[in-house]
Write a structure and sequence with these properties.
The protein is of the alpha/beta class. Helix 1 packs antiparallel against helix 2, helix 2 packs parallel to helix 3 and helix 6 crosses helix 7. Bound molecules: S-adenosylmethionine. The site of S-adenosylmethionine (SAM) has 23 residues, from helix 3 and helix 5.
Length: 208
């Protein structure tokens, strides 16, 4: 059971959303929605969590999880985040900030995680690479979250997961989706073509 003060802490942070990203020399707020923030806190209490990308979501994970790893190659994003954590008096000792590109770091992951958020590069093929290599390290019954499913490279992954018997859709809206893993490791990630409804449906249409 999450203590109410975690929710009020998030509400306070979201009432004055920090700008933790930058585009063309202007600070940006690319942070997750309040609805997703509340869900992350509920699912991450006392857990080991991982995220591709960093920002407001990292602060939210740190309010709940036991130990959090985030992956982001951008050094300025890291500096802004650490300043914000200090300002909000949130302990950064439980944070492992990996200053690396996810496509290089995720294939080297060793641990298993309870909750994973994919919110790094939304450009093709990154969401697929991030999903594949981090998904290999999600515990059975763990939660995989995709943010910005309205970006088509993220949408491909979202569509696959919504049609797969290996994943159970738990919560979401037009912007994000949260799924429970019904298997673990290779079994979760490597479904054969005849077990993938998206592929089978298209083939049946083609040959009917
Ligand atoms: C949409 S923002 C993340 C927003 C964050 N979840 C939040 O709530 O504030 C995307 C982030 O992914 C990072 N990113 C871009 N390419 C990446 C890569 N190859 N690997 C990991 N992170 C990457 C960007 O630097 C940026 O911080």
């Amino acid at each position: 059971m999450i203590k109410n003060n975690k929710y009020s802490e998030i509400k306070k942070i979201l009432s004055n959303r920090p700008k933790l990203h930058e585009l063309k020399n202007e600070l940006q707020d690319w942070g997750i929605s309040e609805e997703l923030a509340m869900y992350i806190v509920k699912e991450s209490e006392g857990k080991k969590t991982l995220e591709v990308g960093s920002g407001l979501s990292t602060i939210v994970f740190l309010l709940a999880s036991d130990f959090h790893t985030c992956i982001n190659p951008n050094k300025s994003d890291k500096e802004r985040l650490l300043i914000e954590l200090n300002k909000q008096k949130i302990d950064s000792n439980r944070l492992n900030f990996v200053n690396s590109k996810s496509e290089f770091f995720c294939p080297k992951l060793e641990d298993f995680y309870d909750v994973i958020l994919i919110d790094g590069s939304h450009t093709f093929p990154w969401p697929i690479i991030d999903w594949y290599y981090s998904g290999m390290h999600l515990k059975k019954n763990g939660i995989m979250i995709l943010d910005d499913v309205d970006w088509w490279p993220v949408g491909i992954v979202d569509s696959y997961m919504k049609n797969s018997s290996l994943w159970k859709f738990k919560f979401g809206n037009e912007r994000f989706s949260c799924f429970e893993a019904l298997e673990q490791g290779e079994k979760l990630i490597s479904h054969r073509w005849e077990q993938q409804p998206n592929i089978l449906g298209a083939l049946c249409e083609k040959f009917k």
